[in-house]
């Protein structure tokens, strides 16, 4: 699915990723944890193709295709979804308009049949119900006036509609209360816990991992993966912090 080998990347000429190696297989959920400034968001943005994140070495492939050689929209059409820590607002564009055009643009790029209005509305209702989001919310401009929890639910609806192969979720638990955390966790499981999909879940805390059980947990520090383990590693980090792991 996703294979990263010796990846180096800079932001504003400052080295952030310094030889990161990681592999995700279909059907797996991997959690990335680590202290502030370790390179977690940089990894997400580099894989997503965000401008300003320059790859200076190494490789990253998705199903064998060179991910780093693709434009951001090509990565999306290839099946990559990037969830943001702070989803942006788009005044004047309704969620439904945004989501339908996003989905159909990907279908065009893959040579697939686009959805008509009725087909799309049925799909949107199904995915909104999964995340407990009222369809009236989807008629409003993208994220405008939404609470933090509503933004994250709307983003998970987007993920459900686009149906990616690989989801990279950057601190999806940020700003969520307990109820929203449960709903978002259940949504991730329902949409992405399948034998042909994979998730790279970036988080600071154990709490989301109570609802989205990872197969593997990795500690990222100093631009590299410094320790890997099972779900129990997240519990260890919650108890003891990062200092001992990073020092080792």
Automatic annotation (TrEMBL):
A GO MF annotation of the entry reads: ATP hydrolysis activity
SUPFAM superfamilies, per this entry?
P-loop containing nucleoside triphosphate hydrolases
The record's listing under InterPro entries reads: ABC_transporter-like_ATP-bd (IPR003439), FeS-cluster_ATPase_SufC (IPR010230), P-loop_NTPase (IPR027417)
Write the record's keywords in alphabetical order, separated by commas. Answer: ATP-binding, Nucleotide-binding
Q: Has UniProt tagged this entry with the keyword Nucleotide-binding?
A: yes
ABC transporter domain sequence ranges:
2-247
- Database matches in Pfam families: ABC_tran
Determine the domain of life of the protein's source.
Bacteria
Q: In the UniProt record, does the keyword Transport occur?
A: no
Query: In which family does this protein belong, per the annotation?
Result: Belongs to the ABC transporter superfamily. Ycf16 family.
Q: Which NCBIfam families match?
A: sufC (TIGR01978)
Write the protein's name. Answer: Fe-S cluster assembly ATPase SufC
What is the species of this protein?
Answer: Sphingobium psychrophilum
Q: Which gene encodes it?
A: sufC
